[in-house]
Amino acid sequence: QVQLVESGGGLVQAGESLRLSCAASGRILNIGAMGWYRQAPGNERELVADITSGGRTTYADSVTGRFTISRDNAKNTIYLQMNSLKPEDTAVYYCNAETWRQYWGQGTQVTVSS
User: Fold this and answer.
1) What's the rounded Cα separation, in Å, for the pair 40 and 8?
2) Using CB atoms within 10 A of its CB, is residue 15 exposed (0-12), middle (13-18) or buried (19+)?
3) Eight-class DSSP state of 84
4) Tens digit of pLDDT for each residue in 38-64?
5) What's the confidence (pLDDT) of residue 28?
6) What pLDDT, on a 0 to 100 scale, did the predictor assign at position 30?
7) Contact residues for 67 (Cβ-Cβ < 8 A; gap 6+)
8) How open is the CA angle 43-91-100, to the nearest 5 degrees?
């Protein structure tokens, strides 16, 4: 089993920044890619960014150039630096980790006011 704990969400104004963190514990040796997803009310959960164990990254078009995902394998933690936030970034953000199955964190709310 893998446990994921997110932190760093909150309420900000448009144009401001937030940094999310996700710490993994448990059977972490089996973790491959990790990532961030988000889900806004009435919408499906969507990929924001992910990062492989080797550091290769993927971003959604909507966040490219504004968000940066990073990974500290020594701390078993990933981060999502979110700059130039927009109201449409408002959502619950979920951390994800892949082993032979997918694991999810409990989610952290990000609200961007205009």
Assistant:
1) 17
2) exposed
3) S
4) 999 999 999 999 999 999 999 999 999
5) 83
6) 83
7) 48, 49, 59, 80, 81, 82, 83
8) 75
Please say if the pLDDT value at position 9 is more than 90: yes
Sign of CA dihedral 32, 54, 4, 67: negative
Cα–Cα distance for residue pair 103/3, rounded to 1 Å: 7
| Token pair 């953000």 in the structure block, residue | 93
**How far is 29 from 20, CA to CA, in rounded Å?**
22
Residue 76: partners with Cβ closer than 8 Å, 6 or more residues away: 23, 24, 25, 28, 31
Give the pairing of strands 10-13 and 108-113.
parallel
